[in-house]
Design a protein that fits this description.
The strands form 35 sheets. Strands 71, 72, 76, 77, 78, 81, 83, 84, 85, 86, 87, 90, 91 and 92 form a 14-stranded antiparallel sheet that branches. Strands 40-41-44-43-42-45-46 form a seven-stranded antiparallel sheet, with no helix packed on it. It has a seven-stranded antiparallel sheet with strand order 51-52-55-54-53-56-57, with no helix packed on it. The two termini are about 115 Å apart. With about 1500 residues, it is mainly beta. The chain contains five helices and 128 strands. The protein is elongated.
Length: about 1500
């Protein structure tokens, strides 16, 4: 072995390397040791053993001695020698002889063995080429085999080969017969054993004289540096030394490489152009081939017409020979696992074979962003300076880049300290080692999810960090601190799972066993199953048993109470019930099958009721009707009971106006106001005590009994859900001695009456306030058959005071009927013109009349009211019953029973007033020294009546007016009786006759509250004889004195004289005390203030004015807790001093203006006096925990500058009102749930627990693999995706198509090919008016449009409904996408039926794909919100890869310049069915959607 370097790959990776003759190494891969084979030599004293057991040796000259070696392996002999001659010349020859060529053909390692096979071509100088198969002339071929057994100790410990006795040698020695090869086989063959030529692969023929070489095709590719040629044909096994390829006369193809016998490749530095001859030569063999090499490199295409090369994006130059590729800069990100590169420069369009090397490492995952940007990744982090080489076939560029010393995200290099400062998650010289570790995991598995708490070390994690449990992502990730992270898997987890935390390039995996049960179960190892709680079932307790079968409810004016019936197990204290978006409070579980709760906001219509108990929930759709328990729903309206009003009967009408209190001993209490028909469950509380034995007289009066007590108290009426409290309205009055006890002879003496606390209780026949009048027995009055007017007559003879010429006459008559409004103003008046007379018997007469309450005479008779008056004469004392009370009728008295049928009130708050006249006349021409007067007041408390007494001298007419009436057959109500003064009589055009001493007249107004069908009242009248003379006080006297002056004239003179004297005295006294007063002013004010605080009282009518505060001597302030209207006496009392002032408090609160006898209220109040606030808060849109804009919805009218909004303890600032239903303000950062209160002057409303700061969350788009379609399509912000033109959509995945302008009918056509097109149709369908609860009030279709073309891009359409004009402008405008159309919809003033109502404009969008042959397509509809900054909704109807995209801005301009917020909604099929919109077939190729644009109340 001498000349050749041979690499031999062996089995078991054992290798022998031979270099020359003296350096042969054997490497054993099993042991990892190399052995030196050069000591493979021995002399005769250390023989080797051959297979024939004949001794032979190896001398010091590295020569084998083959003497005495068996030659039976030879295939022939030398001429003249015996084949079996063991002393053959060959055996005497040297195996390694000068001139011999030795090469190791094979080194084999059979099992446990080593075999080296060596060939030799022995020189035979005189014999010529024999038939041994030698490839070289004058050589003879032989083979030598050296075979050893490795297991027998072939090698020594010195790594040397040691020859034991069991190595064998064999020789193959081929024949020396001379071949018949006269030409030497043309140098392309050898003589074989048969004497012929064995040709090489390139020739054929007897003497190998025929060339087999042929070229059939030449392929080439032009590159920047060189041209590559591929020659195809047949070439045999070529000689690399003697083979050449030339092009024409000048060019040589280099780097010849044979791919196979049919394929050769080489390269040309020179550019080949045009037709050329390719000459192939292999020694004495050659072949020529003509080839046209064209004009351009492989980077160009030759344009024959223009005679130039059109280059690709990577080259330039005449034949595209210049590279354009350049790297300007490299941006990189080195993580703990790899380095990501972004090459910036110019690269054209790269091929898939392009490569990037960073130093010696390949950059993988090559991705071309565009022609100027390529990204790739090196799987090993890179630091320091490295050559970055980009190669694309023959083009390349190298850029030296410094990759720094630290990982990009985790370290910052400190030049001063010469080291990397790592973040909280890494460590190491380059911050390349992760510190992240999970030590343990705590978890809670529910029926819906598994919540995890990872405990370990995580540093400060990024928003991009993720947690996977198995293959599922753990959502709602929240880092508590550096050692705790929470998250949630939306599918319950059981059994062992890998939990992997990944934060960009850092990760850690923890194997966690999630057990066998949810937290609802306990695993029983013995039974190998989960024992579930009362709410779940299933193998892992993963299935909920909770179900709602039905819901019972009761909606009152205060709340809605629910009873959920179903199965609930044993619920936890964390369980919640939501009705719609509202939380149901006061949850109480009655048993496993029933749960009660209460909503503080009334519920109407269909709502989802959701019961949630930790992870368990059930939803039940419940219709809560349209009315509270106070209403009955008929004909789309709620018919309310007498105690409520409102669209849903949700507003209470009950109120307390005043209270008539008993003494400190307690007793009957009368409460006045409005109460409707109270229920049996109603209660009245006075302070802490309950008022019992409640009796309701009518809608406005209630009586009850209270126990003894003292002090001032609140009065509260509770009627089921209705409640009203009048503060400090009840005061026990101290017991005083009855007034009658102060008389010398109380009540006329014991024979005439008894003095009680209520007054005098008279004994028959005595009557009157002091029992001083006696009923006169007189004849029955004569009947009057024309009208119910009665005359009493007596001549006075019963008392023997007058002669027969003196006559006393009294006349009773019914004058007129008036309708009064709430403020006692007359709104209608009726006189009784004609009466029908009926005589029932000799003591009973009936009179009938009627009045018409219709303003139109042609209206039907239902507007007529019948009046029936029954007069009954009582000759003897008789007890009768009326309105559940016993009444004693005096003898010789007459009773009026007045019955009126249904009256058509203009307003339910209006009242009727029936006016009755009573007249007393004395006929005595000799009249001297008499007096007369009129009294009107109340009888004793027990009678509950008013009385009228007109007295002339010692005769009187006595009328009793009971304060009760019977309405609607059996109901008892309270009446109000009043004696009308002269001013009132003048206003209503009643002219009283001369009121003098002998002719007195009074008019009593009986005031009747609203009733429905019928009312009966029952006054009575008697003639009296008085035992007391008339007091001169409040009376008229006719006595004449001796001076000739009447008593009245004398009285006037005397009073004037006295007044003059008083003026002089007072004036003198004033001058004297004024100086003294001025001197002690301060002390005087202090003393007076002190007195006022202790003793002063102020009453407004019957109500006490509270919080009295004296400002100075001329100014005192106080407050009445009930709003006051109309004329009221204001009485100031300070100990024994008092003053009364009549004040008109007007008809309206500060929120109203009185116009045309009614209050015109502002936008925030209602009621006859504008006394009812209508502001309320419906719901609140809260900001995040960082605070910010807060939107409050409800009704607020036009708020004032003084209005404030409180959210919990904090004030919301920068208040902006958009309209009457929306307010915006700004609140600071915070957490938790708060109440929201709006205060606007005296109006206030609070919505409890309506505000909650929402937690911050990462934008949804940040979780996508490629947020917003990548940086070229959009940017992911906290609000969502901000798309780059022409990309649109919520995820920037849709691209605007440039299409032709639509035809004037509004269709947009997008063509695919001749058979496929997409069509979208936009249309305006209808307009609806909705009430506050989104119920349709009115609906309008657009039947006719007027069309006008402004220009070729702008069209105007006009239509109208009622008085409202709708104008639609179609135009490209503002920042619109290309090929888009904008609808501008203008509506003029609309006549809303209610300011809380809204309009809804419905727009239809249709997307159609017309292609019957198109298969495997999908379509869908999306409706949602765009990013926050756009403040819009979007609608996307998607068929295959085309969409119609609609954007609906949430703002509108009203009343010229005001900007308001509107609501856009995609209507569901249920709503469309309700409003009779029939959508076309909704299938995969035809999709349609309807958008409702809801517009709040506007003016113009």
């Amino acid at each position: 072995m001498n000349k050749y370097l041979i690499f031999l790959i062996l089995t078991s990776l054992n290798i022998i390397t031979c270099v020359g003759q003296k350096n042969c190494q054997y490497y054993n891969a099993n042991k990892g040791i190399s052995y030196d084979l050069t000591p493979l030599k021995r002399d005769s004293s250390d023989p080797w053993t051959a297979t024939s057991k004949i001794i032979y040796g190896f001398d010091n000259l590295y020569k084998f001695n083959f003497c005495n070696v068996t030659v039976d392996k030879c295939h022939g002999t030398l001429p003249g020698e015996s084949p079996l001659n063991i002393y053959s010349t060959a055996c005497q020859s040297n195996f390694y002889q000068t001139g011999s060529t030795i090469e190791a053909e094979t080194v084999q390692f059979p099992e446990n063995g080593l075999t080296i096979i060596t060939s030799s071509s022995h020189i035979e100088p005189t014999k010529g080429n024999d038939c041994s198969g030698s490839s070289v002339p004058n050589r003879r071929r032989m083979k030598f085999y050296f075979i050893c057994d490795i297991n027998k100790g072939l090698f020594t410990n010195k790594t040397e080969v040691y020859e034991p006795e069991l190595c064998t040698y064999q020789i193959e020695y081929y024949s020396s017969l001379v071949c018949n090869c006269s030409t030497g086989c043309s140098n392309h063959g050898i003589c074989n054993e048969n004497g012929g030529c064995k040709c090489d692969s390139k020739t054929s023929g007897n003497q190998c004289e025929i060339s087999n070489i042929i070229i059939t095709q030449v392929l080439y590719s032009r590159e920047i540096q060189e041209d590559n040629l591929e020659i195809i044909g047949f070439f045999g096994i070529i000689s690399l030394i003697s083979t050449t390829v030339k092009i024409g006369n000048s060019y040589t193809c280099n780097n010849i490489k044979q791919q196979s016998e049919t394929n050769i490749k080489c390269t040309m530095i020179n550019k080949l152009i045009g037709e050329q001859i390719l000459s192939y030569t292999d020694g004495d063999l050659s072949y020529n081939f003509s080839k046209n090499f064209g004009t351009c490199t492989s980077h160009g295409i030759y344009n024959k017409t223009e005679n130039y090369c059109k280059c690709d994006t990577q080259t330039s130059g005449e034949i595209c020979q210049n590279s354009l590729i350049v790297i300007d800069r490299i941006e990189f990100l080195t993580t703990t696992k790899n380095t990501n590169l972004s090459l910036l420069g110019y690269f054209g369009t790269i091929s898939i074979e392009s490569t990037i090397l960073v130093g010696e490492l390949q950059c993988n995952n090559i991705k071309q962003i565009n022609e100027t940007n390529i990204e790739c990744q090196v799987d090993i982090p890179q630091f320091g300076e490295k050559n970055v080489k980009f190669t694309d076939h023959d083009l390349s560029y190298t850029f030296l880049k410094d990759f720094g010393k630290c990982t990009t995200n985790h370290g910052i290099y400190n030049n001063t300290e010469n080291k990397c400062k790592c973040d909280t998650q890494t460590i190491g010289e380059s911050c390349q080692n992760s510190l992240i570790v999970i030590d343990k995991i705590e978890f809670l598995t529910t029926t819906k999810n598994t919540k995890l708490l990872l405990i370990g070390y995580f540093g400060t994690i990024t928003n991009e960090s993720t947690i996977y449990v198995g293959e599922l992502q753990c959502n709602n990730k929240k880092q508590i601190n550096e050692i705790n992270i929470e998250c949630q898997v939306d599918i319950p987890q059981f059994g062992p799972k890998n939990v992997t935390f990944v934060d960009n390039d850092l990760s850690f995996t923890f194997l966690k066993d999630f057990g066998n049960c949810t937290y609802h179960g306990i695993y029983n190892k013995t039974e190998n199953k989960c024992k579930c709680d009362t709410q779940t079932i299933g193998e892992s307790c993963q299935n909920s048993l909770i179900v709602i079968d039905r819901i019972d409810f009761s909606t009152t004016t205060k709340n809605t109470k629910l009873s959920l019936i179903g199965y609930f197990g044993i619920i936890s204290i964390e369980s919640t019930i939501h009705v719609g978006e509202l939380k149901c409070n006061n949850i109480k579980q009655m048993n496993e099958f029933k749960i009660d709760c209460q909503l503080d906001i009334l519920q109407f219509g269909q709502k989802n009721v959701i019961l949630t108990d930790n992870d368990l929930s059930f939803t039940f759709l419940k219709d809560f009707g349209n009315c509270t328990s106070h209403g009955k729903y008929e004909d789309n309206l709620c018919l309310c009971d007498s105690k409520t009003k409102g669209d849903h009967c949700e507003i209470s009408k009950i109120f307390i106006n005043s209270v008539n209190s008993p003494t400190i001993n307690g007793g009957l209490t009368f409460i006045y106001g409005f109460f409707g028909n109270i229920s049996e469950n109603s209660t009245i509380e006075i302070g802490l005590n309950q008022c019992i034995n409640i009796i309701q007289y009518n809608h406005s009066t209630i009586q009850c009994e209270i126990g003894a007590g003292v002090g001032i108290h609140d009065v509260t009426i509770n009627d089921d859900d209705l409640i009203f409290t009048l503060l400090k309205s009840f005061e026990y009055t101290p017991i005083q001695k009855p007034k009658c006890s102060q008389d010398e002879k109380p009540c006329g003496g014991i024979s005439q009456g008894v003095c009680t606390y209520s007054g005098c209780v008279c004994k028959s026949p005595w009557v009157g306030i002091d029992c001083s009048s006696k009923v006169i027995i007189i004849p029955q009055p004569s009947k009057n058959d024309s009208n119910p007017t009665i005359e009493f007559e007596t001549n006075g003879e019963q008392v023997n005071k007058y002669n027969n010429n003196t006559l006393f006459k009294s006349i009773i008559s019914i004058v007129k009927l008036r309708e009064l409004d709430f403020n006692s103003k007359e709104v209608n008046s009726f006189d009784f013109i004609k009466w029908e007379f009926y005589e029932i018997d000799n003591t009973t007469y009936i009179y009938k009349s009627n009045i018409s309450t219709s303003e139109n005479k042609n209206e039907n008779s239902n507007s007529n009211t019948d009046i029936t008056v029954t007069l009954q004469w009582f000759e003897k004392e008789t007890n009768i019953s009326f309105a559940n009370s016993d009444i004693k009728m005096n003898p010789s008295s007459i009773k009026y029973t007045i019955e009126m049928s249904k009256y058509n009130f203009k307003n339910k708050l209006n009242r009727l007033q029936l006016i009755i006249s009573a007249m007393m006349i004395m006929d005595n021409p000799d009249e001297i020294n008499i007096c007369s007067n009129k009294e009107f007041g109340e009888t004793i408390k027990e009678e509950n009546s008013n009385y009228l007494k007109i007295q002339i001298d010692n005769h009187s007419i006595y009328g009793r007016f009971i304060k009760r009436a019977i309405v609607d057959t059996s109901k008892i109500i309270t009446l109000e009786n009043t004696m009308l003064d002269s001013l009132t009589l003048s206003e209503i055009n009643i002219n009283s006759k001369n009121d003098n001493v002998s002719h007195r007249e009074a008019f009593i107004g009986i005031t009747i509250p609203y009733y429905q069908d019928q009312i009966i009242i029952d006054p009575d009248f008697s003639m009296l004889l008085d035992t007391k003379e008339i007091s001169s006080t409040n009376s008229i006297c006719s006595n004449i004195n001796e001076s000739g002056l009447s008593a009245s004239k004398l009285a006037a003179i005397i009073i004037c004289s006295i007044l003059f004297a008083v003026v002089i005295v007072v004036g003198t006294t004033y001058i004297y005390f004024k100086k003294k007063y001025d001197k002690d002013l301060v002390e005087s004010i202090k003393m007076k203030t002190k007195k006022v605080e202790i003793f002063i009282t102020i009453y407004v009518g019957e109500l006490q004015c509270n919080n009295i505060k004296q400002i100075n001597e001329i100014n005192i302030e106080c407050q009445v807790y009930i709003p006051q209207f109309g004329r009221k006496n204001v009485i100031l009392t300070d100990k024994d001093l008092s003053f009364t002032f009549l004040k008109d408090f007007g008809n309206c609160t500060s929120h109203g203006n009185c116009e045309n006898n009614s209050c015109v209220c502002d936008s925030k109040t209602k009621g006859n006096h504008c006394e009812i606030s209508i502001i309320f808060i419906s719901y609140v849109n809260s900001p995040t925990i960082n605070g910010g804009l807060t939107f409050i919805y409800g009704f607020f009218g036009n708020i004032s500058e003084n209005s404030t909004i409180d959210i919990g303890p904090n004030q919301c600032i920068n208040i902006t009102q958009f309209d009457e239903t929306r307010i915006q303000c700004e609140i600071g950062a915070g957490v938790r749930i708060h109440d929201v209160t709006i205060k606007d002057d005296d109006l206030i409303f609070t919505l409890l627990k309506s505000f909650e700061n929402t937690p911050l969350v990462s934008p949804k788009c940040s979780q996508d693999d490629k947020p917003c379609g990548g940086i070229s399509q959009g940017v992911c912000t906290n609000s969502g995706c901000v798309c780059k033109s022409p990309w649109v959509g919520v995820d920037c995945s849709s691209k605007v198509i440039i299409i032709p302008q639509p035809s004037k009918n509004g269709e947009e056509v997008n063509k695919y090919n001749n058979n496929t097109y997409f069509k979208s149709i936009i249309s305006i369908v209808k307009l609806r008016e909705l009430d506050f609860y989104s119920k349709e009030i009115s609906s309008f279709n657009f039947n006719k449009w007027e069309f006008k073309e402004i220009d070729n891009t702008t069209y105007i359409y006009k239509s109208s409904i009622s008085t409202t004009v709708i104008t639609i402008t179609l135009k490209c405008d503002i920042k619109m996408n290309p090929s888009s159309i904008k609808y501008t919809i203008y509506m003029s003033k609309y006549n809303f039926k209610n300011k809380l109502n809204r309009l809804q404009s419905i727009i239809s969008e249709i997307m159609i794909m017309d292609n019957p042959d198109y298969k495997s397509i999908c379509s869908n509809k999306e409706f949602g919100e765009t990013i926050k900054e756009e403040n819009s909704n979007y609608l996307k109807i998607h068929i295959d890869n085309h969409s119609i995209y609609g954007r609906f801005i949430k703002r509108a301009i009203v009343d010229t310049s005001k900007i308001i917020t509107i609501e856009n909604t995609m209507l569901d099929s249920s709503t469309l069915s309700e409003i009779n919109i029939n959508s076309k077939n909704d299938n995969v190729s035809h999709r349609e959607a309807f958008i409702g644009i809801t517009i709040p109340y506007y003016k113009d």
